[in-house]
User: Which sequence fits this backbone?
């Protein structure tokens, strides 16, 4: 036992000596390294010290803007009686001489968010809703959203600072569904405070903004955020809705309220949000003040309506590289269809022509063409530069009133599921099957008899589905500029297509879930 104790003590002494030697050696190495570092000292005498801004600076700026604008922001209460409705038909595509087809992807969202969040109430039911507005004239003229007031039997406005029970009855001066804007008026007993409009074109992504309104009925609520995007299009079926996007919280009840910059100027009218919970998720949309001013000035005019120019053509909302390559153009707007008896047809424009300039101003995309043409008055003339067959041509077109030009055009209803004939439809490696177009369907779509083939099936995961929207019931008029007026034409043209080749369909939409209109669909074949 004594031998074991002696060995244990000797081992412990040895271990202690090893630890001490290790520490001494480490200290010596650290000292040498430290001396080496000190020998390479860096001169920082030219470095400026960091300073902190006053903690109240931004908070003070926000509060000053809020105090300036809040007196001009109003709470709008509406009452309406639910009337009997018929099933909603699909909406017509946007065209107005400038447009293309849209889809109904956003319509259900707008119905839920702005239309009651639960479907159609029983006929005769009284419904109440809340919204916001902003006074822009001391005489009582107020800007708001069309969806806030357009179906109301009674509109009441509560002014900032007044008790909730004190309201003014308002009348509608005019509405514009294309931009979802409206002007209403109250008869005040005094001169009212009003907001100044700023120029939305001067706003940049990252600029601070405040949203003011009555979310959930909580009047005079102020939220802060930034401009997160400009020129945002969220619903292709509405040609003139190009929004400022903001992360300032916008909720139900904010609709019609102002979006304000740091100069206390209104740069937008809050209109919509993207949401999955019916509340703000940091993505809101406001109609830019530049558009607001243009619409307001027309609505307060003698006709109380907005007149927009049109040349009567249709085209894709967004540029498609495959379309540009097949039609041999670099930029511009390629025409998908020309409205019968419209200005473009009278001027000799054809499907496949690409408009590259208007009155000498180059046109990059459809939005630029829309903006220029719609601002013109009926009877005005514009000079178009266009590419046809690889050559540039000039044409003069007389502007028409969009509303009159498309007055009789309406969206088509659902097509039957039945397909004419018992023969097997023509199919292709593109992933779709087609049949000859029947006279009845041609008549319903406004197409000449014997023009085009009707789609009977689109294979999931195929090229045809990928380039969509292409649906059963749509009519293919051309493939890569070649007319396809029969199943035989379709087989002949598509059999020559090869992997890696651009393929562009000219499609008259009319299938299930799609509005009726002509667009290009294209891509590169795998």
Assistant:
């Amino acid at each position: 036992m004594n031998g074991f104790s002696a060995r244990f003590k000797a081992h412990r002494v040895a271990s202690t000596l090893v630890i001490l030697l290790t520490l001494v050696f480490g200290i010596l190495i650290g000292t040498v390294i430290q001396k080496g570092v000190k020998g390479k000292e860096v001169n920082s005498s030219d470095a400026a010290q960091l300073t902190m801004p006053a903690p109240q600076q931004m908070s003070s700026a926000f509060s000053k803007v809020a105090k300036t604008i809040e007196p001009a922001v109003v709470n709008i209460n509406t009452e309406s009686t639910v009337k009997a409705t018929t099933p909603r038909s699909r909406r017509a595509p946007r065209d107005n001489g400038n447009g293309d087809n849209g889809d109904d992807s956003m319509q259900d969202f707008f119905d839920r968010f702005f239309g009651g969040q639960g479907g159609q109430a029983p006929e005769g039911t009284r419904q109440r809703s809340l919204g916001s507005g902003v006074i822009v004239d001391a005489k009582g003229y107020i800007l708001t959203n069309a969806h806030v007031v357009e179906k109301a039997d009674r509109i009441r406005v509560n002014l900032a600072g007044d008790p909730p029970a004190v309201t003014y009855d308002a009348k509608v001066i005019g509405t514009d569904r294309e931009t979802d804007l409206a002007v209403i008026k109250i008869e005040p007993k005094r001169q009212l405070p009003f907001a100044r409009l700023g120029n939305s074109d001067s706003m940049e992504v990252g600029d601070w903004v405040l949203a003011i309104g009555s979310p959930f009925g909580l009047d005079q609520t102020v939220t802060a955020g930034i401009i997160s995007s400009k020129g945002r299009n969220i619903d292709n079926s509405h040609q003139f809705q190009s929004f400022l996007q903001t992360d300032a919280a916008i909720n139900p009840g904010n609709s019609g309220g102002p979006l304000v910059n740091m100069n206390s100027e209104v740069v937008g009218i809050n209109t919509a949000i993207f949401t999955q919970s019916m509340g703000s998720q940091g993505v809101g949309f406001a109609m830019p003040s530049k558009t607001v001013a243009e619409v307001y000035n027309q609505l307060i005019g003698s006709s109380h309506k907005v007149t927009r120019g049109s040349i009567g053509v249709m085209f894709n909302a967004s540029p498609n590289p495959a379309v540009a390559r097949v039609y041999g153009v670099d930029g511009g707007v390629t025409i998908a269809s020309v409205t019968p008896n419209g200005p473009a047809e009278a001027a000799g424009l054809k499907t496949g022509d690409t408009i590259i300039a208007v009155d000498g101003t180059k046109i990059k995309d459809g939005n630029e063409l829309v903006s220029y043409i719609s601002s013109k008055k009926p009877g005005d003339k514009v000079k178009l530069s266009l590419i046809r067959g690889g050559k540039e041509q000039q044409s003069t077109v007389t502007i028409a009133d969009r509303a009159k030009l498309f007055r009789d055009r309406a969206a088509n209803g659902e097509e039957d599921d039945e397909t004419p004939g018992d023969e097997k439809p023509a199919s292709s490696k593109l992933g779709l099957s087609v049949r000859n177009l029947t006279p009845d369907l041609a008549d319903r779509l406004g197409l000449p008899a014997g023009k085009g083939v009707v789609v009977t099936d689109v294979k999931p995961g195929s090229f045809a589905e990928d380039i969509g929207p292409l649906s059963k019931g749509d009519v293919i008029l051309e493939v890569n500029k070649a007319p396809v007026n029969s199943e035989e034409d379709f087989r002949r043209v598509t059999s020559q297509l090869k992997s890696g080749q651009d393929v562009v369909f000219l499609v008259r939409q009319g299938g299930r879930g799609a509005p009726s209109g002509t667009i290009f669909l294209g891509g590169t074949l795998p």
About this structure: The domain at 57-85+120-306 is CATH 2.40.10.120 (Thrombin, subunit H).
